[in-house]
Amino acid sequence: MTQIPKIFDRSLLRQRRQRIAGEADKGDFLHDRIGQELAERIAEISRQFEFAVDLGTHTGKLAAGLENAPNIGHVITTDGCRNYLKNKTCLNIVADEEWLPFGAGSLDLIASNLQLQWANDLPGVFAQANQALKPDGLFMASMFGAGTLPELQTSLLDAEMDVTGGASPRVVPLPDVREIGALLQRAGFALPVVDKDIIKVRYASPLDLMRDLRLMGATNIATKRSQKFLRREILFRAMEIYTERFAEPDGRIPATFSIIYLSGWHPHESQQKPLAPGSAKTRLADALNGPDTPKTDEKPRL
After folding, report:
1. Other Cβ atoms closer than 10 A to 294
2. Residue partners of 11: CB distance under 8 A and separation at least 6
């Protein structure tokens, strides 16, 4: 049996999220914006989803959008922290994103907003989601991806090198688009789609960014992180580097977030399927209204 690597300390994640649950709304603008985007994408799909799950609801921004969507019936919210399950019009279930409590073929839609990037067993989450969906059921999610917060990562790394001569991981590893696409296919989803959006947020100072990351529950939970508190000298030097290298003309500093959107369907016979090799009835050259393309062993003219 393959052992799942423990990249993230999920117990620490729950503890930190539990502590900030009462004030998480103050730094929840990304969950709000992206939750609305997900809900709008789902609302545009011309089919009815009778039973939908908001997986890892956090402050409930996605669930609120799903409840307002015309093609959604019943909304179920889940979260590993009970303090986030406050929606009085949904069925609320305490559940870890890595252990889905739903029977096979019981759901029409599973959606998740900026929570799955902390999963140690992302392939397992995708496989469980596919199993829980009915035929032609939809899985759609957003998550932070590779390329998130490069400014902060560089500043912390270089600051620690300046102060101590060494460095430990300060920003957690995140997947890229290709990895997510491969995992969706591996989990057995049909018609997988993955795309990326870059969001740049401007802050008055690096400390304001760090405050929002804490309220998002997006602080460092890597198992290989340093067990020591971040020294004040390193923090102050990191803020200096951030401002020196990245500050814009008006003095504000940018923070880059790479957002991956992903979707896949539980297989069903009604879904569009790719043509079998050799079954095309029209040549590519005819479709392009031009001569045949050169053979692979011929060098095309420049």
Report:
1. 10
2. none
Kindly indicate the confidence band of residue 71, based on its pLDDT and cuts at 50, 70 and 90: very high
Output the domain CATH number for residue 193: 3.40.50.150
CA distance 281 to 7: 49
Q: Which residues pair with 113 in a beta bridge?
A: 142
Over 50: is that where the pLDDT of 300 sits? no
5 domain residue, yes or no: no
State which residues form the domain around 187: 10-270
User: Domain count of the chain?
Assistant: 1
CA distance 101 to 104: 10
**Cβ proximity of 257 and 199 under 8 Å:** yes
Record the pTM.
0.85
> Would you place residue 289 in the very low, low, confident or very high pLDDT band (cuts 50, 70, 90)?
low
| 31 occurs within a structural domain | yes
The DSSP letter of residue 22 is: G
**C-alpha to C-alpha distances, 38 to 14, 45, 88, 238, nearest whole angstrom:** 24, 11, 21, 34
Q: Which of 58, 6, 21 is nearest to 221 (CA)?
A: 6
Query: Which two tokens mark 56?
Result: 């890892």
Position 297 in a domain: no
pLDDT computed for residue 274 by the predictor: 59
**Domain annotation covers residue 284:** no
Residue 167 has pLDDT above 80, yes or no: no
d(CA 59, CA 61): 6
Query: Taking every pair of C-alpha atoms in the chain, what is the biggest distance, in angstroms?
Result: 69
Region label for 44, one of left (φ > 0), alpha (ψ between -120 and 50) or beta (otherwise):
alpha
Helical (H) or strand (E) element with 201: strand 190-203
pLDDT over 60 (residue 279): no
